[in-house]
Amino acid sequence: MTAYRGHLIHIGGAPRLPAVAGNLVNEPDGVIMVDDTGRITYSGAFDARPDTGDDVVDLRPAFLLPGFVDTHIHFPQTYCTDSYGGGQLLDWLSRCIFPAEAKLADPVYAQLMAREFCRRRLSVGTTTALVFGSAFPHAQDALFGESIRTGLRTISGRGIQTMGPPSAKPLLTDEATAISLVTEEIVRWHAADTGDPATALVHAAVVPRFALSVTAQTLHALGELYDSVRDRGVYFHTHLNENVDEVAEVRETYGVQTYLDTYDGKFGDGSAQAGKTLLGPRSVLAHAVHCTRDELARMADTETSIAHCPTSQLFLGSGVMPWQATVRSAVNVALGTDVSAGDEWLIPRVLNDCFKVHMSEPGDQRVALHPAELLFTATLAGARALALEDRIGNLDAGKEADFLVVDPHRQELLAETLAQIDEADRDALLFTLLMGMREEAITHVYVKGRRLT
């Protein structure tokens, strides 16, 4: 058993969003005790810990935070942050992203990118990520292999495209090949590290790029495939309602009432049921900026989650996900960087944008998010979206020990700024920490009790 002593901050228990402020744990002299299986056996005040003669790692004055959970990030876009596309989503994809992703056809290049992708995640404390994958199987092999080598939690699936503009041609396959490659990836990589999804760090997902990258026939085939593997803990991940032009094109192309219908098996003309739903507790839809009330209600009913990506929505001018209307629907909202449309890898920088974006919503839609709500979206809400809440997301006893050591003295002015705050004002302290911290303050990263380097 090892005891890690520091300033403990996390969202305890399993609250829904409206209650998270009341579940904010702030223990200035705190400790988590971790056994040799990587599980937390005690979490709380240092002086109240069980006296079992454990080794104590004194990390004070550093903070102990849960590892960050990124519910939407693109592996093949590792080198694409700040790519100038000259327009919004569809232009940017055609001019910048499809050509960049095509370079992963080179196995050597793909291996290099996988190594740097994992190294970058480690440097910013993203211990768990739902990763939009490459179209090329060897690139996905490199990603999963490097994730296992480094010890990061990674859920990913190859990016499925059976149709697209000329710039996407190297990424396209026919439908039969697409289904075959996804099936092979699931067989090879789902829970490949332990053989058991309940203990694994790596998991597979079914990942069509978005409704316009496939046909109704492909969606039907993916529905059949996903239905056959859903109970094995396989995930579904894609984009939804990101851009107004995209939404209009999806509705016109499929003849559906809403964009969500295409993933709900209702891609027949007029939203007629034509296949099996892809929605559910392990389904995460990125962006959801322009959802109807019915779409939000359907996601909440099916326990489908939203990956909220405020930084990328600013970068591409996609609009703002209306926070209050979205959370009132009871749908789970977690945070995503959306690298590379999102140009920030560090989750607290995305939280910074999240706060500012929703403070700038018009009229009575404006909201100042509580710092506990911000931390929740970056940790426990992400674990909930990934059906991993029983394992990770906070630092409660019984959870696996995914945590960060954040030393404010490693970052210029951060410690001095925090010192100006009354230590009894936990909300102000957390807000300043989340808004102000940069990656140099992250000194250690642990996954399942193992320090990663």
TrEMBL record:
<dbReference type="InterPro" id="IPR051607">
    <property type="entry name" value="Metallo-dep_hydrolases"/>
</dbReference>
<dbReference type="InterPro" id="IPR032466">
    <property type="entry name" value="Metal_Hydrolase"/>
</dbReference>
<dbReference type="GO" id="GO:0008270">
    <property type="term" value="F:zinc ion binding"/>
</dbReference>
<feature type="domain" description="Amidohydrolase-related">
    <location>
        <begin position="63"/>
        <end position="450"/>
    </location>
</feature>
<dbReference type="GO" id="GO:0006147">
    <property type="term" value="P:guanine catabolic process"/>
</dbReference>
<dbReference type="GO" id="GO:0008892">
    <property type="term" value="F:guanine deaminase activity"/>
</dbReference>
<dbReference type="InterPro" id="IPR006680">
    <property type="entry name" value="Amidohydro-rel"/>
</dbReference>
<dbReference type="Pfam" id="PF01979">
    <property type="entry name" value="Amidohydro_1"/>
</dbReference>
<keyword id="KW-0479">Metal-binding</keyword>
<keyword id="KW-0862">Zinc</keyword>
<dbReference type="InterPro" id="IPR011059">
    <property type="entry name" value="Metal-dep_hydrolase_composite"/>
</dbReference>
<dbReference type="GO" id="GO:0005829">
    <property type="term" value="C:cytosol"/>
</dbReference>
<keyword id="KW-0378">Hydrolase</keyword>
<protein>
    <submittedName>
        <fullName>Guanine deaminase</fullName>
    </submittedName>
</protein>
